[in-house]
Amino acid sequence: MTAVPLAFGNLVAEHYEDSFHEENPIIDQLREKMEIHENPTYTKEYLEPEKRSIANAMQVYFKDGSSSDKIEINYPVGHRRRREEGIPLLEDKFKANLATRFPAKRCKEIFALCKDQAKLEATPVNEFMEMLVI
């Protein structure tokens, strides 16, 4: 989960496939260079029900002795404390995934229905499922 974004700039579902790793030896090459250290505070706060922090930090050291700044994230996008930031990203991801399967018009219809909770709840299941037939 760290080597792939360092090498490719993002992390998507396909990156979890064995075939992706087999085709990209740089992933294991980067992993071999990594040192992992537990921060006891991260573990403690992950287990606290009121926090459920999913903290992590990273710093890159280069061959010339220089290093990047240490970056620490206590609550990643997607955590309940960052819901406001995460929802637009989740919507973009949903649209992108719809676009891999449906024509643009149907993507817009499905997305619009899913954005309107009252309308979605009032939609008969068979009608919603018909929208998802390819």
TrEMBL record:
Domain of life assignment: Bacteria
InterPro entries noted in UniProt: MmgE/PrpD_sf, MmgE/PrpD_sf_1, MmgE_PrpD, MmgE_PrpD_C
Matching Pfam families: MmgE_PrpD_C
Annotated coiled-coil segments of the chain: none
An MF annotation (GO) of this entry: lyase activity
MmgE/PrpD C-terminal domain segment(s): 1-116
Gene3D superfamilies per record: 2-methylcitrate dehydratase PrpD
Family statement: Belongs to the PrpD family.
Name of the protein described by the UniProt record: MmgE/PrpD C-terminal domain-containing protein
